Amino acid sequence: MKDFLKDKKTVLNYIYIAVIFVSVLVMIILGLNFKSTRKEQTVPETATEKVELEKKENVKITVNVETIKDGLNNMGTLITQEYYFSQIATYTKDKKILNFINSTAGFTYSYDGSVTAGIDFEKVEIKKDENAKMIIVELPHSSIQTVNIDTSTFKVYSEKESLWNKIKLEDYNLSLGEFEEAAKKKALDNGILDKSDEQAKTLIVNFIQNFPNVSDYGIEVKFIKINQ
Fold first, then answer.
1. Would you call 140 helix, strand, or coil by DSSP?
2. Which of 50, 91, 103, 174 is most buried by its number of CB atoms within 10 A?
3. Pairwise CA distance, residues 84 & 20, whole Å
4. pLDDT per residue over 169-197, tens digit each?
5. What is the pLDDT of residues 118-153, one digit of tens each?
6. In what side-by-side order are the strands of the sheet with 125-129?
């Protein structure tokens, strides 16, 4: 009887061990299956993110230079520098009387006015170097556009004439032409064209920088000789 009970107890122990082993095995299998299922569920999301990332990497931000060019061309001839002056000049007229007597007439006078310089923006050309990420602007140098004389400021300080050499209206008109040339030369001597070029360059760079996506590009402005 004791041997029978002992054998029965041994059998039960084996059964308990078997049950525990099977339970542990089932738990391991279920755990592996859970991880596999979770991994499968996350794969599509990861793949989607990867596709979106690839799309972002393949997007190229570009600038439409034709739009910029049209905007600059529409500005026409733009005055970028103005030189104001108040100047005194002397006009003289020499005349020979009877082919041997010299007679001189003239007057000293003054005018106020201005000289303007600018660039013909219709001749601006724009190129784009996508590899170097550069926008290259080519434009002509500045030129004198107008010489404006304020005739209301005309003053005569002194006049000299003789019976045979009178001052006439045409002399005043001639003096005005000489005065305009003198004012133009003075403006050139004061660097009006160089200042106009620099002002135009600043204006163009600021204009282009207002366009979308331009921040990814450098801007180079070149002054070139353009055939008329």
1. coil
2. 91
3. 105
4. 666 677 778 888 888 999 999 999 999 99
5. 999 989 999 999 899 999 999 999 999 999 988 888
6. 125-129, 134-139, 218-223
Residue 209 has pLDDT above 60, yes or no: yes
Q: In the prediction, which pLDDT does 140 show?
A: 93
Gap between the Cα atoms of 196 and 228, Å rounded: 20
- Asked whether 155 and 207 are in contact (CB, 8 A), the reply is no
Torsion region of 182: left, alpha or beta (phi above 0 gives left; psi -120 to 50 gives alpha): alpha
* Nearest CA among 119, 118, 113 for reference residue 181: 113
**Residue 86 near residue 97, CB atoms below 8 Å:** no
Looking from the CA of 1 toward its CB, the CA atoms found within 13 Å total 0
Q: Which residues pair with 96 in a beta bridge?
A: 102
- Sketch the domain layout of the chain as residue ranges: 1-59, 65-223
What gap in Å lies between CA 91 and CA 93, rounded to an integer?
7
pLDDT for residue 94 is more than 60 = yes
Q: Is 41 exposed, middle or buried (0-12, 13-18, 19+ CB in 10 A)?
A: exposed
pLDDT at position 52, please?
Answer: 55
